[in-house]
Design a protein that fits this description.
nine-stranded mixed β-sheet, single chain, Rossmann fold, 26 strands, 25% strand, alpha/beta, GMP Synthetase, Chain A, domain 3, 521 residues, 16 helices
Length: 521
């Protein structure tokens, strides 16, 4: 199924329903269909044809959705750029993709002006804000184009998005995603649009990230109204939910915690929220336990996936967030609350050992996945593709985990972050979750420090809660009493903030670069 059909079908079923609410404006599904068609015609007039790349750099706006569907109509490949990237990173992504048209928000004009001379492939620049000399103006482009529907011979196997990974090691890699990668997930896991069923979904996750694009695809197919927030800001988010009576939200753990910690949290009526999906980074157990208490009318879903899988591959469902039953049942449910749930029915997920064989339940290995949603590969990087997707079609996620007897999968860390101390394997997440139980700890990250005797030793980087105090000895003793002795930190450093990327994932690379001094004997 081609993703353009999501919009085509929904605009026929609910033409006058708001597809997008963005700041003071609303756009119906008919509006979205018309504006994206106009832009598609304009792109064709600029020479864009099937297989060409179109780059986009801006915060969340209605134009982002319009541009994606315009590209899909033409058969072009949409290239969303991380708007937080440096100029040289943007330059690399545009050059690597070979984009010939680039769209950018007003605040990014200066960055593009600096690198324009190094982008010979880009023939047209389209500004999403005020006029910029030498650039087309987006709204004038839309207004001056035809409304005639664009039909392109696009197959579900054709590429539709080239999404660059964060590039924590080396240059970013372009993940090649086809129409099928999205349609397989959406048609198997989302209820299609209905004339009499209306839902609102707040979109605050950036649309250059797979979680943002997945939310868009699900909303368009499901006929949901997207309440779009430019960038996450806690109080503005609460105002939008209250004003528009939003029923669904996708959050990263950091966002959820910031909401509950906000001094105005209790001032807003957030009772309209029926479903809160979280993911993109590990969820601390204490945060989700608190969220379940603070949002008693909401159902929670933990969605785990990555760019290379195009969407969620495992899910911890709403029923798993209800901690009820006998003491024994409650204990099991509480433990599974720290898992990423079970594989979705349209994808295979297994735990694989280093020798390539599937490991038994309870044993740590790499999480691998197989199915129609797996990426086609990395753009122009055959070697990287062959090491990530093996000869049997398994996508190697780089995440370590284990599966219990009920089929629930628990993360054990990134393969590159696992600490190897004297032959013992230590999961940073396990130690971090233990330390987060201390009442004085606001945040924590565990790293391995090189050691000539043990290979690596465990160091905890801890952020204290305001007005609280805790000592190194107390942190170590807490872990000693709750974990195997070799897992406890041998050094604790107190810092002001844990570095994280925009999606809330801890930047272990930055921590290791700054705090890798040897642990004193």
């Amino acid at each position: 199924m081609n993703t353009t059909e999501f919009l085509m079908v929904t605009s026929a079923i609910a033409p006058d329903r708001a597809a997008i609410i963005f700041e003071e404006k609303q756009y119906t599904f008919t509006d979205l269909q018309t504006r994206s068609t106009r832009l598609a015609n304009a792109l064709q007039g600029m020479g864009i044809a099937k297989g060409d790349r179109v780059a986009y750099c801006d915060v969340n706006t209605n134009q982002c959705l319009e541009t994606y569907f315009a590209c899909a109509k033409v058969g072009a490949i949409y290239v969303p750029l991380n708007f937080r990237a440096r100029g040289d990173e943007i330059e690399f992504m545009i050059q690597d993709s070979g984009a010939t048209v680039a769209l950018a928000g007003e605040r990014y004009y200066p960055v593009f002006e600096e690198i324009k001379g190094k982008l010979p492939n880009v023939k047209h620049y389209i500004g999403l804000g005020k006029h910029n000399k030498g650039w087309h103006e987006y709204e004038k482009v839309i207004a001056g184009a035809a409304e005639d529907e664009v039909f392109t011979d696009t197959d579900e196997a054709d590429l539709t998005i080239l999404m660059f990974t964060a590039g924590t090691t080396g240059k970013p890699k372009g993940v090649m995603l086809a129409h099928r990668n999205f349609s397989e997930y959406v048609t198997n896991n989302v209820t299609p649009a209905e004339p009499d069923v209306e839902e609102k979904n707040i979109l605050t996750v950036p649309m250059y990230h797979i979680a943002g694009i997945q939310a868009v695809m699900a909303a368009i197919y499901g006929g949901r109204t997207l309440v779009v927030q430019r960038q996450f800001e806690a109080e503005d988010w609460m105002k939008l939910v209250q004003t528009h009576q939003v029923g669904r939200a996708m959050m990263v753990p950091t966002m959820l915690k910031q909401l509950m910690d906000h001094p105005s949290f209790k001032k807003y009526d957030l009772s309209s929220l029926k479903v809160i999906t979280y993911g993109a980074a590990p969820m601390p157990l204490e945060v989700i336990k608190r969220a379940i208490h603070e949002f008693p009318k909401s159902r929670f879903i933990n969605a785990f996936g990555q760019t290379e899988s195009a969407a969620t591959i495992t899910m911890l469902g709403p029923e798993d967030h209800v901690i009820e039953g006998t003491p024994a049942e409650r204990e099991v449910k509480m433990k599974r609350l720290g898992s990423i749930g079970k594989p979705l029915p349209d994808v295979e997920v297994r735990i694989m050992g280093e020798d390539g064989t599937l490991v038994p339940n309870g044993q740590v290995g790499e999480i691998v996945a197989k199915g129609g949603r797996i990426m086609k590969g990395y753009w122009k990087q055959e070697k990287a593709t062959s090491t990530t997707i093996d000869k049997n079609g398994w996508l190697h996620t780089g995440d370590l985990g284990y599966q219990d007897d009920g089929g629930y999968i628990f993360l054990a860390g990134r393969a590159k972050d696992i600490i190897k101390r004297g032959g013992e394997m230590i999961s940073p997440e396990e130690v971090e979750n233990c330390i987060l139980e201390h009442a004085a700890v606001e945040d924590v990250a565990i790293i391995g420090v090189p050691d000539t005797e043990w290979g690596e030793r465990v160091r905890a980087c801890v952020v204290k809660k305001t007005g609280h105090d805790v000592t190194e000895a107390e942190i170590i003793e807490l872990c000693r009493t709750r974990l195997a002795s070799f897992k406890k930190p041998e050094s604790v450093i107190f810092i002001d903030e844990i570095p994280r990327n925009p999606m809330g994932k801890i930047s272990k690379k930055d921590l290791r670069a700054k705090y890798n001094q040897p642990v004193k004997a």
